[in-house]
């Protein structure tokens, strides 16, 4: 059974005792770790308790598929619910998981597996999505829709509030990994001292991220058709070790906002009004560039851009070809489309 949206949070707060095993997977490793820890802490406080906590690596289950069911069936010395964690699970763990789900387990042991970014064809993922005794929790990178809530919740634990411009800047800087996001917000909270209202200046001083700015440079250069800027910015971020898929997703978020703003324009607003209607608002330093791009990209062209980016991410994950080259070609295709739109605008 696959849980998404609000059902994930509800399950994390109150795990269903009828569920025999839980698979937490996805590209956001920080969010995978966070959810694994939340579930583990719902069972016991000391994860190093040798009588109630067991940790197994997924690779070990291939040679001993019965071990997982045996561990789930075992009782803890001294009583109390047990926790079995399977780390770095892959499709090689499928036999052990099938044996667990088919076994007549009479204990309340919680079995939690963590995994990387399993594609839809993964046997392990399919097993957990279709079995009524299992639950899988996908963990995808936060985006412009989910990040504001993450930011509000994290800052509120420190008694802080962020104004709209600060929130917008935080969204630009954060989101690729949940643990990194929380770490940066904790750093911001420490920087704030006794102040409670977070402003854009506070964000820049505490967690100003040149890497995030470089990613924005790539995105805006591609959307504007600026080949020279795109080449230099892309080379810079790839040399810094930025994951190509992170670039693709940053582009997807940007084009989603362009698409939304174009919708406002279809309702009669001009480019400036449409950009100001977005929430969170476009950063001041990028506002003029964003408005110019609105005049280059028609709704039909934006739809084709989404197709290019979706195919790019799929190819990066499935073809085995160099992800940097795949992403570079996709960004060049977007830049060429932007230039054609620019020529029509000038006419």
Q: Could you characterize what this model shows?
A:
With 347 residues, the chain is α/β, with parallel strands linked by helices. It folds into three domains: 6-138, P-loop containing nucleotide triphosphate hydrolases (Rossmann fold); 147-169 and 179-206, no CATH class; 210-346, Zinc Finger, Delta Prime, domain 3. 59% of the residues lie in helices and 9% in strands. It has 17 helices and seven strands. It has helices at residues 6-13, 29-41, 58-63, 67-73, 94-102, 123-130, 147-156, 164-173, 178-192, 200-207, 210-224, 227-239, 244-266, 271-276, 287-294, 299-318, 323-346, and strands spanning 21-25, 53-57, 83-89, 110-115, 134-138, 161-162, 197-198. The strands form two sheets. The chain has a five-stranded parallel β-sheet with strand order 2-3-4-1-5, sandwiched between helices. The chain has a two-stranded parallel sheet with strand order 6-7. Helix 5 (94-102) links the parallel strand 3 and strand 4 (110-115). Helix 13 (244-266) runs antiparallel to helix 16. The radius of gyration is 23 Å and the shape is globular. The mean pLDDT is 89.
């Amino acid at each position: 059974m696959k849980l998404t949206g609000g059902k994930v949070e509800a399950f994390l707060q109150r795990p269903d005792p009828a569920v025999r095993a839980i698979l937490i997977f996805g590209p956001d490793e920080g969010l995978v770790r966070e959810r694994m820890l939340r579930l583990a802490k719902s069972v016991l406080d000391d994860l190093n308790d040798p009588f109630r906590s067991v940790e197994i690596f997924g690779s070990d289950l291939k040679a001993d598929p019965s071990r997982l069911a045996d561990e789930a069936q075992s009782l803890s010395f001294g009583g109390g619910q047990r926790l079995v964690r399977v780390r770095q699970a892959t499709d090689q763990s499928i036999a052990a998981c099938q044996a667990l789900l088919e076994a007549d387990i009479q204990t309340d042991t919680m079995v939690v597996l963590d995994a990387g970014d399993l594609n839809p064809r993964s046997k392990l993922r399919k097993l957990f999505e279709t079995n009524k005794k299992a639950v899988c929790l996908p963990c995808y990178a936060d985006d412009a829709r989910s990040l504001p809530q993450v930011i509000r919740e994290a800052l509120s634990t420190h008694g802080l509030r962020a104004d709209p411009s600060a929130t917008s800047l935080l969204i630009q800087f954060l989101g690729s990994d949940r643990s990194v996001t929380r770490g940066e917000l904790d750093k911001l909270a420490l920087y704030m001292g006794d102040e409670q209202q977070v402003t854009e200046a506070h964000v820049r001083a505490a967690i100003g991220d040149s890497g995030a700015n470089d990613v924005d440079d790539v995105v805006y250069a591609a959307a504007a058709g600026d080949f020279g800027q795109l080449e230099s910015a892309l080379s810079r971020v790839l040399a810094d070790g930025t994951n190509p898929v992170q670039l693709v997703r940053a582009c997807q978020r940007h084009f989603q906002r362009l698409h939304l703003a174009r919708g406002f324009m279809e309702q009669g607003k001009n480019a400036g009004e449409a950009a100001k209607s977005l929430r969170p608002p476009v950063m001041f330093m990028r506002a003029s560039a964003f408005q110019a791009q609105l005049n280059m990209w028609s709704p039909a062209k934006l739809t084709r851009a989404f197709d290019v980016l979706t195919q790019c991410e799929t190819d990066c994950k499935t073809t085995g070809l160099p992800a940097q080259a795949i992403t570079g070609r996709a960004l060049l295709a977007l830049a060429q489309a932007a230039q054609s739109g620019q020529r029509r605008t000038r006419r």
